Amino acid sequence: MPIATVNPANGETLKTYEAMGDEEIERRLQLAEATFRTYRESTFVDRSRLLIQAANHLDEDREDIARVMTTEMGKPVKQARAEAAKCAKAMRWYAERAESLLADEEPAEADVRDSGAARALVRYRPLGPVLAVMPWNFPLWQVIRFAAPALMAGNVGLLKHASNVPQTALYLEDLFHRAGYPEGCFQTLLIGSGAVDEILRDERIRAATLTGSEPAGRAVASTSGEMIKKTVLELGGSDPYIVMPSADIDRAAQVAVTARVQNNGQSCIAAKRFIVHTDVYDAFTERFTEGMRALRTGDPMDEETDVGPLATEQGRADLEELVDDARRSGATVLCGGERPEGDGWYYPPSVLAGITREMRIHREEAFGPVATVYRAGDLDEAVLIANDSPFGLSSNVWTRDEAETDRFVRDLEAGGVFFNGMTASHPALPFGGIKRSGYGRELSGHGIREFCNITTVWHGQ
After folding, report:
1. Looking at residue 183, what is its pLDDT?
2. 144: which of 130, 165, 307, 404 lies 20 to 30 Å off by Cα?
3. Cα separation of 266 and 165, whole Å?
4. What pTM value is reported for the model?
5. Catalytic one among 87, 185, 268, 452?
């Protein structure tokens, strides 16, 4: 895939870039290693000042970078602005809290004595240069949720961004440079995916984080395992959205629309499989389908647009294949389901019912504004359908029954269970999945500690 900005609204190639050569990659690796030696000695006060300055610049740049993101990957510009604002918020959150999140931990006094120590503690130390392999769907947020905690912990970062968002990738390097970070603290590597393996094998890279597809995750995990390097993986998702009879059906249907089509439906944590108790199935499905049908699809630069084009032509083709396979196998298309005529990689908000286990869309991730609806006879069946997936990123449940709440928390196979609302990421809450959705956690204290050397410090009598 060439490194280029291609506008998904019309397919026009706006800008192309040459991939960095071996000499430039080597220069940047040397710089990252050298910078880490001194940056790791900086204080939390210094790091906080730099990160807040970066957040301030991002706030000032919000309109411009939002339009760049929309041009590169097609999300509605109003959502791009919100993404930039969320990034600045997360940066300030870590700038204010990193010192306490990484404070020395002292075991109980009795345990210290029992170990034979006069004093013992646990200290969080940075690992070194971390390689971040990031996707195009949230081209700012995915990077910032790695970079903010990593930099506050004293690490340095090297970014290999998706090849279709090069302008956003270069902006991120410039953002940290303008904030006053030492050269080499955060660098963008304009490289293709084929160059990742060799960089990951370099001894100067101490760890890696990847958000992206399952094949990409397997490749990074395989090499990292061979090299014995720490990794955090956030991969695909096919999140269930369960609606029980005690739910506010109108509200559940309204939120379901947003939960499915946020970011043009191209979100790992978007609700994708809507599992509805038979007692409220008809009412929910009618309201949900009406809401999906009413969405406005069009120019992502238009403030009134709800759903823009998919980011890539191949992505649309993959989505069409899933829908066509389901239709051939007996699924009912309640709305959408057909590619519109005209330029751009658009696909309409669509709802499919009558899904069976034999259909590809039941097992694979539909990365676009296509929802599948299931009828469940009771709570047990709802859980069975929800867990009948190779993925386990997050989940949504609508119920007012406390006993049901406990059951869903106990039984759903996912990294998160969100009740009476849609899944969203927040700096204060750990984020990540199980099964083929990956491992490790981002955000919160759990996220900032992922790339730390958790060091036992023991003092004898």
Report:
1. 98
2. 307
3. 15
4. 0.97
5. 268
